[in-house]
Amino acid sequence: MTKALKASGFLGLAVMMAVGLHQFVMLSGGNAVPPWMIGGHAHLGVLSILAIVMGFAVPALEVTGTLRTVVTILFIAGQWGIPGIVWLGEGFGLLFLMPTGFLWGGALIISMLIMLYATLSQETTTQSGPTGTAPADD
């Protein structure tokens, strides 16, 4: 599952960079970049970086089983849902999609609250030096 988070993060950054290049072409042609395009670009960039971080945080906090699956699915859904509705809703006039922002935002919030739970419920141990082998990716 953490492989999915990392892959989604890197794919999101690639898409965000392609959109950024498109915005540059628009600007160099003397055209203004629409605010909805800028907003989606920024959200996808930040959420993609966080997806990569989550790909390392989930195993580091030893989130396993159903919680690991739920965190992964909810975060990836929010990562793509938030910029997606901005681009589709505002950019393509599909305004009926805009209220789903609460769904995608809620998915992100729930995934973060699960990670908070994992952080607070984890046993604290004092270790010095390396802890052995790095956790394997799934």
UniProtKB/TrEMBL annotation:
<keyword id="KW-0812">Transmembrane</keyword>
<keyword id="KW-1133">Transmembrane helix</keyword>
<feature type="transmembrane region" description="Helical">
    <location>
        <begin position="101"/>
        <end position="120"/>
    </location>
</feature>
<protein>
    <recommendedName>
        <fullName>DUF8059 domain-containing protein</fullName>
    </recommendedName>
</protein>
<feature type="domain" description="DUF8059">
    <location>
        <begin position="1"/>
        <end position="138"/>
    </location>
</feature>
<keyword id="KW-0472">Membrane</keyword>
<dbReference type="Pfam" id="PF26248">
    <property type="entry name" value="DUF8059"/>
</dbReference>
<feature type="transmembrane region" description="Helical">
    <location>
        <begin position="38"/>
        <end position="58"/>
    </location>
</feature>
<feature type="transmembrane region" description="Helical">
    <location>
        <begin position="7"/>
        <end position="26"/>
    </location>
</feature>
<dbReference type="InterPro" id="IPR058372">
    <property type="entry name" value="DUF8059"/>
</dbReference>
<feature type="transmembrane region" description="Helical">
    <location>
        <begin position="70"/>
        <end position="89"/>
    </location>
</feature>
